[in-house]
Design brief:
Length: 275
């Protein structure tokens, strides 16, 4: 059986990282687009997109997403995956705004959890409604799972007909309040996936690169970027998400896998090409 190419996702901005933490954080549409292009050149097929106000505060404003998406698409042919997570405390309607931009892909958070000292709320009625809007617009969901129960929730929602299987899962590991980042936990999660599903791993902080390498060795895909981790190595700031993507590309090749192009990623993720 041929080895599948590795899909690399770059989470280039996020909602929590600040310019005080790293001066390389992109904020404006032009900065996001330039960073997306650098990440694409380094091997990223997917850009996980958040946007910010001019002062750097997180927002889910539709107009800012549209501006950023246009700027990115003018520079490179990547899959733009918009967030519906936004930032902790945002309303459901605020979080859903990017879906009006008709991205190829969007995140669908599978359940609630303690998120540091806050609570990230994703009750079932909201998950069902977000899934309905994605299906209505032909947007492919990435199922975000921060804990083992979130995988079970996705399976239950699939039985309800809310989401389609097989699907693509993203295991976000290392959040304080969620499942820890360890080989044992990742193997456990992978073992719970329905047949035909694919998975990616987003390790938080210092876990980002080790968990990416593990996922790539296990046949999964990987996410990196300044949203989750600002360091290339201990004490050394990454000059952008593209440096982290380049490191993941090296890891993929070391694991005997090629790096997926955007076209290959669309096929693997069952994303219909638009336009």
């Amino acid at each position: 059986m041929p080895v599948r190419p590795a899909i690399l996702t770059a989470a280039i901005c996020g909602a929590e990282t600040t310019r005080e933490q790293t001066p390389y954080l992109p904020i404006t549409a032009d900065e996001l687009a330039a960073e997306a292009e650098r990440c694409a050149q380094a091997g990223a097929a997917v850009i996980h997109l958040h946007v910010r106000n001019d002062d750097g505060t997180p927002t889910q404003d539709r107009a800012l997403f549209e501006k950023a998406i246009r700027a990115i698409r003018a520079r490179c042919d990547v899959i733009v995956q918009t967030t519906t997570g936004g930032a902790v405390g945002m309303s459901a309607e605020e979080r859903a705004q990017p879906l009006l931009c008709n991205p190829e892909m969007a995140t669908l958070n599978a359940g609630s959890l303690n998120f540091g000292d806050d609570v990230f709320m994703n009750p079932f009625p909201m998950v069902r409604e977000f899934a309905r809007r994605m299906r209505e617009r032909g947007i492919v969901p990435e199922l975000e799972c921060y804990d083992a129960g979130h995988v079970e929730s996705c399976i239950a929602l699939a039985k309800e007909g809310v989401i389609d299987m097989p699907a693509h899962f993203d295991f976000v590991l290392g959040v304080r309040g969620g499942l820890g980042a360890s080989e044992e936990n990742l193997e456990f999660l992978v073992g719970k996936l329905p047949q035909g599903c694919s998975f990616s791993v987003a390790g938080i902080g210092r876990h980002q690169l080790p968990m990416a390498e593990l996922s790539l060795r296990l046949g999964g895909h990987a996410r990196c970027g300044l949203e989750d981790n600002v360091y290339l190595s201990k004490g050394v700031l990454a000059k952008g998400s593209y440096e982290l993507v380049a490191r993941l590309a090296q890891m993929a090749r070391a694991a005997g896998r090629s790096v997926a192009t955007s076209a290959q990623a669309r096929e693997l993720l069952r994303i219909p090409r638009r336009g």
